[in-house]
Amino acid sequence: MSFTAALLCFVFAVSDGDTLKARCDGRAATVTVRLAGIDAPEYRQPFGQRSRQKMAELALDQPARLECQKREDKYGRQVCRVWVAPDHCRKGGRRSENCPLTLDAGHALLTVGLAWWDERFAYTEPPQMRSAYAFSQDEARARHVGLWSDDDPVPPWLWRRFHASPYRHAR
User: Which of 28-32, 86-90, 132-136 has the lowest mean pLDDT?
Assistant: First the structure.
């Protein structure tokens, strides 16, 4: 799966751990983004609120670089890798404007156990990214952090089968 040219954006809303809204240079409309490669717990699912909170800490009210797939998902969202400035760039609660956007926000959620690597869409990612995502998920599971501290965590794609989604009738 190929990705379009990078967009420089400003994240102004975080819906859940893997969905956000941004305003991007060169686009009049707001972009709704689904993070590529991960599936975060739904908001009402265990760890859903913590996942959303972590994504907000990483990206809300911050600049971001989006590398999006050419096609939208079935809900009309852009599927993108989201790159933000790392936490060490913070000065007084805001990130420095000179800090590079080098932190993969989806990978960061996997590392702290607040998302699943979505193997169903692994073919859309380059091999090195698949390996990094799989390794980070395995490490989080081995450390029992985040959702992996639960005895039997339920992946969001299974949880959604039995619970209504706010996106189900979108478009």
Answer: 86-90
